[in-house]
Amino acid sequence: MVTNPLDDAPLSRFHKKLAVFSSGGPFLDGFVLSIIGVAMIQIADQWGLSSVEQGLVGASSLIGILLGAFAGGWLTDRFGREVLFTVDLIAIAAFSVAQFFVQDVIWLIVLRLLIGMAVGADYPIATSLLTEFTPRKYRGPFLGAFVAMWFVGAAAAYVVGQILAETGNDNAWRWMLASATVPAVLIVVARVGTPESPRWLVGKGRIDEANKVLRKVFGPGVSVADLPVEDENSVSVKELVRSGYGKRMAFITLFWTCSIVPLFAVYAFAPAILSALKLEEDAAHIGSAVITILFLVGCIIALFLVNRMGRRPLLIHSFLWAGLALLLMGVFPEAPTSIIMVFFAAYAVLIGGTQILQWVYPNELFPTEIRGTAVGMASSLSRIGAAVGTFLVPLSLSGLGIGATMLIAAVITLLGAVLSHFWAPETRGLSLTESASLGVASSPVSPARASQS
After folding, report:
1. What is the pTM (predicted TM-score) of this model?
2. Which of 54, 106, 257, 408 is the most buried (most CB within 10 A)?
3. Do the first three CATH levels of 13-194 and 235-453 match, i.e. the same topology?
4. Topology relative to the membrane, per the entry (predicted)?
């Protein structure tokens, strides 16, 4: 393996700070998507919102994230990472404040859409900057931590929502929605001064600026001559499907969708769902926070199992047992509170395998030339399913009831297990080149070969 001063640099204080500040985006993603579920109880009562209107409010941020991810990727390649690294969070803060003054549901939907676009834009901006500075040994763990920060943000939202709800103020929901301003501003302040990516600067012909950044971050002896040569070939969506990777694209999109449709719906309306399951309002909010922490625990456990169990078994078992937990909630919606919480907690922990594999599988199953295109396409398509699922939750709760709603969520999750059984390859123990090969990755790796990795 060829070494160079950038890819094999020791982990520095700069890298650690950049990782923390970059993770502010997924933290805010989890926060803004979850806080609306707590606020919705009061909003729906005060404004007399219909189920359709509640669904639109809940789904608008998800639609915004889908649009923002596309726009953010284009903007960061065109105008650079440094400026947009703070501008997008300033937008989140501004739109969050604006929610405090909103007077009708249409403007609330618009503002939630704009917040979602700013949150979605931060993903390609922050991950590009982090990836282009981080030594190769730490890129995986640092990018994997993005999943964990989403759940931290969601848990924080439920705690903040509960504290504000207990004030009894009629405008508590306004303070809830505006509360995202605080972490957004803090992250902006922390990000100020982050240098531009030297790789992007070189691509724009700004060599002197790139050398200045490299000397500041990596030391006086490092220059653009030490930057590794990168393959910048791109592949269109049509070429991606025609190249023979269409089935893999379908697999990743479908399993990702089956994983996040129930999960995002639960996050957006967790307090309402738990209330429908006969939990008191305070217990519903606290229960939402506890369950969110358990989602984080599930992801951490899955990170330890992904190389021990293998990708394919972890994915199938995660879908299967999480789906059974939802099935039990649907079959026994009148069970005692303690039993309901056990079922919900089991789902939260067991679904962790599908969550981390949303980032592992796409990067292992596609070659370098089309990896970015494939990951972006799968992420966007799965967000469509998440937005539809979030929109339909209040309609299902009011029209079908909590039992049927949980049964639908169980069917979607179990469908993920079936799809994974037939389509999921095993990539444990394979090199990145081997796992991306159409001929090799379709067959599970043998235990003997896996042990050699």
Report:
1. 0.69
2. 54
3. yes
4. Multi-pass membrane protein
